[in-house]
Amino acid sequence: MADxxxxxxxHGYALADELFQVRGDDLHVGGLSVRExxxxxxxxxxxxxxxxxxxxxxxxxxxxxxxxxxxxxAKANPARGVIRLFIEEGAGVxxxxxxxxxxxxxxxxxxxxxxxxxxxxxxxxLAAVIEGGIGExxxxxxxxxxxxxxxxxPVRASxxxxxxxxxxxxxxxxxxxxxxxxxxxxxxxxxxxxVAAVPNIELVGxxxxxxxQILDAAALIESWRHAITLAARVARTIGRPLxxxxxGGGLGIPYYEGxxxxxxxxxAAAIPDLAASMRSEPLLAGARAVVEPGRFLAGPAGLYVxxxxxxxTSRGVRFLVLEGGMNHHLAASGNLGQVIxxxxxxxxxxxxxxxxxxPATVVGPLCTPLDTLARDTGLPALAAGxxxxxxxxxxxxxxxxxxxxxxxxxxxxxxxxDGRIERIAR
Length: 426
Hints:
Blueprint: H1 11-19, E1 21-23, E2 26-29, E3 32-33, H2 34-41, E4 45-49, H3 50-64, E5 68-73, H4 80-89, E6 92-95, H5 98-106, E7 114-116, H6 123-132, E8 136-139, H7 142-151, E9 155-162, E10 172-173, E11 183-184, H8 188-196, E12 201-208, E13 211-212, H9 217-238, E14 244-246, H10 264-279, E15 288-291, H11 295-298, E16 302-314, E17 317-322, E18 346-347, E19 358-363, E20 372-379, E21 387-390, E22 412-417, E23 420-423
Parallel strand pairs: 4-22, 5-6, 5-15, 6-7, 7-8, 8-9, 9-11, 9-12, 12-14, 14-15, 17-19
Antiparallel strand pairs: 1-2, 2-3, 4-16, 10-13, 16-17, 16-21, 18-21, 19-20, 22-23
Helix pairs in contact: 3-4, 9-10
């Protein structure tokens, strides 16, 4: 019997219907029902819908057409099949480790299509990517300049700049404060001089990344405008044109009830003015803007699906105990940057027509109360053996989670498209 005090929310169900297909009781992903996919992969499993990824890429590419190139940020989901899909769509790849470099190359990226960003690049990593070929290295500090000098081989590089606080944006601030990322904007002249003193480094651009999980189009546009202003300043200082203006990533997706998606129409409306500001500066007229989204492209396409292992009630609270939890999906547990823990959208993928009016707390099998994937969420009446799916799970899922904690098995992963299941091996 439904509890009349429970507020029925169809947030997850509406999102599932928008992104995928609902046919009868079943949620379909990539042309197959989730329960059919799980019957082949086993439970738990990450399932990625290739068509959803392609739609996200093509929509963003249309907005940025003629203004910026898209580089997929591999940290969001470094599965080779996922990287390959975006390369097929025309993207370059932004990496933050030698492991991601190898994944990008294995997925079919050409070396000149790869940008290497991130703090703390080791000498061996820098040497390896320069030996293998790299489009650009984005320098984050004086130590990296010294390492590139020691390697001694010619390399194209951009300076990563930590912008002033006025342009910090997003749910997680990547700049505008004390940070390990890049050179502070107020120290920019010294950073330019340090690079100029190393003959094997060709300074070709800048990289500005103010924040991540940005849903405010106006804030995103303003951060891009500031990056163009900084690029003009750098170009004038060095007295020659720049080739690259990396505007960063950070484009967000709606996780929680009440979140509004990033308004791409508003972004599109601002593009002509941003492009004109670049063309108006002679030293930037031939520059290429770069945007490096990851979550925005991959996040909506993914589901984390697990079978319910047990159902129990404790002091009036109904718990659904899954076969996997925060060891597979730390972000959904709220322990990856959330201060106030809110629920990711959750559905029962084989009971899509049932009313989600039964309050439940969804937990994993780990020996900690932190292992909670949803708190007092509305789901249908479910039993052991039924499936639960966490949506918006295509980015920062398995590889951002403590997979070895308590030594449970890793989940299966698969890219599904046009009824074909491509298992992902790591």
